[in-house]
Write a structure and sequence with these properties.
The complex is a heterodimer. By secondary structure, chain A is an alpha+beta fold. Helices cover about 50% and strands about 15% of the residues of chain A. Chain A contains 11 helices and 14 strands. In chain A, a hairpin with a 4-residue loop joins β6 and β7. In chain A, α1 packs across α4, α1 packs antiparallel against α5 and α8 runs parallel beside α9. The longest helix of chain A is centred in the N-terminal third of the chain and has 46 residues. Chain B is about 35% helix and about 25% strand. The model of chain B has no long low-confidence stretch (mean pLDDT about 85). Classes of the chains: A alpha+beta, B alpha/beta. The interface between A and B is large, with 41 and 33 residues.
Chain lengths: ~450, ~220
């Protein structure tokens, strides 16, 4: 089973979610802790208020008084800074150390608004202790009053009370909002990551195997991917260097072969005319053709490939002229017909080589006689046709494969036709074996030169 | 007819020198750049055959030295480097011709003669031989055995071109420019007609040569 490679976007999103979850939990816990402390204090204020209210009484003159033998002493025992202050139109009473600002707050509203008055100050306190202040208007026994209590410590509240209080808070809305935001952020991460690697992917797809100087553009890579891009480019540079070294080595080897071949050729020429001399000459010719093909094959992959306007007709004729001595002495007739000029763009050396290889192929497999006809058409097609046995059905598919020589190319090295198709590919065209009633008919199709 | 051969290959150099000498050249054979410079400064050569890859450097660096000589001898680069830029570089640097290894000796000799055509009085006395045909470049006389082969002017011009490049195809454009002057009007079939007459005459004279036609491209003369 094929394992799918892990998605970066998915992993980033996952990490993001985990981090987000952790933050959310921390925030919840922190808020809960803080609010619990605050709420305990507030709750303490609320319960202290209710207890204190029991101690509020009215004297004979209708003035409020705080009974000192009721709940108040117990509250002071639990919270040593506890205070209470009560006010009505008739008068006011206090118990414990009432802070001045609390007293101002209780005294400031007009008594007509007693029933609208409710104030809870959850924080405050003396000596860093959390206490609460609760001020509320109450309908006492008789006149309306405003009662304030404060200095209550949280310890006096119950946990059940705290939970009940929290349920009322708006906190859960905040949590829900944060979760929704988090999911949206995660969904946004995936396309952002994809988009940011797209230019790189495009550049990588555009790397031309024929041009080893190609690199990924560092400027379009996200900073996080720069190490990968640099490593990739460094690997490309090493490959280019290796290829270039190998290419130069091949070229050197081929060049080195040529001088001894020249010696061989010169001595063969001086031999008296005979069948073995013809064989030797053919051997030398084939060797030098193969070396030429190796060099051309290497050159096709090398840098500085020429791209110029060339005349296909002139190149085809030159190829015919080059191959003619061998073809004529092998017993063939050679003809050229068609256009006198057909402009294409490309490497003149390679194009001439492609035609020469087709001709060499025709000489080797054209049946040893008859006509080898070269034709160049106005729509930039070079056709090389022989009158030999043609190409068998099983070989048709494979004649352009490298080193394919089974039966078909039994004394070549099998590179000739492959090189032809490589050359055509490099020129944006193609080589094909056309249908023919007699002999083999190869065609080279060139694209129109861009204006 | 003194020529300088600069070729470091221990087999190719001596064999080439031997064949050139057999054809009547006086050959000074050196195997490195330093010796070549010394030879060029000390003697006057009618032509220089120059290899490009030499043990002590690039053969083409001899060209500036040769350019100081008056007259500068024609230089024929004989090299295994056949990339187009290589050729262009060679020709731009002042070489007159470029021959790629492995070459046919006849081709090399023909090109040497072509380069030296400007001074026919110095052409070698040994004629070019193709099959049973002997052709004297200096006097432009053709013979088969002891019998001189007399030809009309244009057929002679065609034969001259074909013999110089025997064993190779001469493009018909080249033949036309060799055979016709600027003022001559070329009729479309004129060249074919001249060539077929020449072919008949060569056959009649039993010259032992074949004049091939490569239709649409050119002609080639070779020993039968």
């Amino acid at each position: 089973m094929r394992r799918r490679s892990p998605s970066l976007a998915l992993r980033v999103a996952l990490a993001f979610l985990i981090a987000f979850g952790a933050i959310l939990v921390a925030i919840t816990l922190g808020v809960a802790a803080i609010s619990q402390a605050l709420d305990e204090a507030t709750l303490a204020g609320d319960s202290a208020f209710a207890l204190t209210l029991r101690d509020v009484e009215t004297d004979a003159a209708g003035r409020p008084v705080l009974r000192t033998n009721g709940e108040l002493p117990a509250l002071v025992r639990a919270s040593p800074g506890y205070w209470a202050f009560v006010r009505s139109d008739a008068g006011e009473a206090s118990y414990g150390p009432v802070p001045a600002d609390a007293m101002r707050a209780i005294r400031s509203p007009p008594m007509t608004e007693w029933d609208e008055f409710s104030l809870t100050i959850p924080v405050g306190g003396l000596g860093g202790r959390v206490t609460a202040t609760t001020i509320e208007g109450v309908q006492g026994r008789g006149d309306p009053m405003i009662l304030g209590v404060g200095g209550v410590t949280p310890g006096t509240a119950t946990f059940e009370g705290a939970i009940a209080y929290m349920a009322h808070a708006d906190f859960h809305w905040a949590v829900l909002g944060l979760v929704v935001l988090g999911i949206l952020a995660v969904l946004a991460v995936i396309p952002v990551v994809r988009l940011s690697v797209r230019p790189l992917a495009r550049a990588a797809a555009g790397l031309d195997p024929a041009d080893l100087g190609g690199r990924l553009p560092e400027e379009s890579a996200p900073r996080e991917l720069l190490p990968v891009v640099r490593a990739f480019n460094a690997a490309l540079a090493r490959l280019e260097e290796t290829f270039e070294r190998r290419r130069r080595f091949m070229a050197d080897v081929a060049h080195e072969f040529r001088t001894p071949l020249a010696v061989l050729n010169m001595h063969v020429e001086t031999l008296p005319e005979s069948a073995s001399r013809t064989d030797l000459q053919r051997g030398v010719f084939r060797l030098s053709e193969m070396i030429g093909q190796m060099l051309d094959s290497e050159r096709l992959r090398g840098p500085r490939r020429p791209d110029q306007e060339v005349d296909l007709a002139a190149l085809a004729k030159a190829a015919v002229a080059d191959v003619a001595p061998i073809a004529l002495s092998a017993g063939y007739d050679l003809t050229y017909s068609g256009e006198q000029a057909a402009p294409v763009r490309g490497d003149p050396h390679a194009i001439k080589r492609a035609v020469a290889n087709l001709l060499g192929n025709a000489v080797a497999h054209g049946g040893g006689g008859g006509e080898i006809a070269v034709r160049v058409t106005a729509d930039r097609i070079v056709e090389v046709a022989d009158e030999g046995p043609g190409v068998g059905a099983e070989a048709r598919e494979r004649v352009f494969d490298p080193f394919y020589r089974e039966r078909w190319d039994k004394d070549g090295c099998g590179l000739g036709l492959h090189l032809v198709s490589e050359i055509m590919h490099a020129h944006g065209g193609r080589a094909e074996l056309a249908d023919s009633t007699r002999g083999a008919r190869f065609r080279l199709l060139f694209p129109a030169p861009a204006a | 007819m003194r020529i300088l051969l600069v070729e470091d290959d221990p087999m190719l150099g001596p064999s080439l020198a031997a064949r050139l000498e057999a054809d009547g050249f006086v050959v000074d054979h050196v195997t490195c750049l330093a010796d070549a410079v010394e030879a060029v400064m000390g003697a006057r050569y009618r032509a220089v055959l120059l290899d490009r890859r030499l043990p002590d450097g690039e053969g083409m660096s001899l060209l500036p030295v040769l350019q100081t000589r008056r007259p500068m001898p024609p230089v024929l680069l004989v090299t295994a480097l056949d990339d187009i830029p290589d050729r262009v570089a060679g020709l731009e640097a002042g070489a007159e011709d470029y021959l790629i290894k492995p070459f046919a000796y006849e081709e090399l000799r023909a090109r040497l003669y072509t380069r030296m055509r400007r001074s026919p009085e110095e052409a070698p006395s040994v004629p070019l031989v193709v099959g049973g045909l002997a052709y004297d470049l200096a006097t432009r006389e053709a013979r088969v055995g002891d019998r001189p082969l007399t030809l009309p002017r244009r057929e002679m011009a065609i034969l001259d071109s074909l013999v110089r490049r025997a064993g190779r195809v001469v493009m018909r454009e080249h033949l036309e420019s060799d055979v016709y002057g600027y003022e001559d009007e070329i009729q479309s079939n004129a060249l074919e007609a001249h060539v077929s007459r020449l072919r008949r005459r060569l056959a009649d004279a039993r010259a032992g040569v074949i004049l091939h036609a490569v239709r649409g491209v050119g002609y080639m003369l070779r020993a039968s």
